[in-house]
Amino acid sequence: MRALLLITFLYPAFSLVGCHVFRPKPPPAPSTTGPFALDPLRRSTVERLEFHLDSSQSSGLIATTLDPLRLGTRHSRSRCPLQGTITATLTTSTDDTRSLALDSIDLATSTNAHLKYDWTPLIGSIRGIIPSGILTIKHHTFSGPLKIDSRGTFRRPGYRFKIGGVCRIQGHGLLLKKLVGQSEKSLTIAKTKPIVLDGTLVRRAGKWILEIPAAVLKERFELDSKGSTLDLVFTGKVTAVAR
Predict the structure, then answer these.
(1) With the CA atoms of 73, 78, 83 and 85 taken in that order, what torsion angle do they form, in degrees rounded to the nearest 10?
(2) What is the chain's mean pLDDT, rounded?
């Protein structure tokens, strides 16, 4: 009887000798191809940046050609400091490539722009002034993010802007004082022609610095029904620091 109990007790233990210990299978490795591949941008970093223009290094060159009443073209130009902000989203992917998506642009001149056009003493002259803060540049259409290369440079066409402003003009001399007098002409452009944004985005002293050396806007304005025209070329030079 005692032997039977011993056999009954030991049998389960001996029966386990030939069994394999159960170990769960490791989970499958994440797929790197196919429809279930991991998104390589999953760990990308996204920064919301607000750039403030450095007015000591940012300016707008206003170059104009005026032809009033078909008396012959005259040229005048004026350079004004620029002020304002640019907001953007900077995305840095896992392979350190970067793109900058512009969200808004809100710029304005910070001094008066003075324009002078002279003819003969008999015809006279025209003086124009674009008051400080009146000439504005705002975003209209962004064609896509700016791809930043390893040197920090970018170039992308297709950006459009909205221009606002007025030019106060006054005629002087025997003819133009009478024909032109004093008036105010609108410089509003609802949507500019597409322009190219060409510049750099670099990091210095822990701050992102955006530089656009020459963004060029061109437009022609019909000043009256007698054929008077004003051609305007605005060249913006921007240096802005993210805060």
Answers:
(1) 30
(2) 86
**139-168: b or e for each residue (b if 16 or more CB lie within 10 Å)?**
beebeebbebeeebebebeebbbbbebebe
State the Cα–Cα distance between residues 89 and 92, nearest whole angstrom. Answer: 10
Residue 191 has what pLDDT? Answer: 93
Residue 77 structure tokens: 């130009």
Evaluate whether 164 touches 131 at the Cβ level (below 8 Å): no
Q: Answer whether 161's CB lies under 8 Å from 217's CB.
A: yes
Q: Which pTM value belongs to this model?
A: 0.78
> What is the pLDDT at residue 20?
47
Strands 113-118 and 98-109: unpaired
**In the predicted model, is pLDDT for residue 192 greater than 70?**
yes
Cβ partners under 8 Å of residue 181, min gap 6:
170, 171
Distance CA(222)–CA(230), nearest Å, equals 7
Q: Which two tokens stand for residue 135?
A: 């000439």
| CA atoms of 29 and 182, how far apart (whole Å) | 78
C-alpha–C-alpha distance, residues 112 and 127, integer Å: 13
Judged against a pLDDT cut of 50, whether residue 16 lies above it is answered with: no
Using CA atoms, how far apart are residues 102 and 199, in angstroms rounded to an integer?
Answer: 13
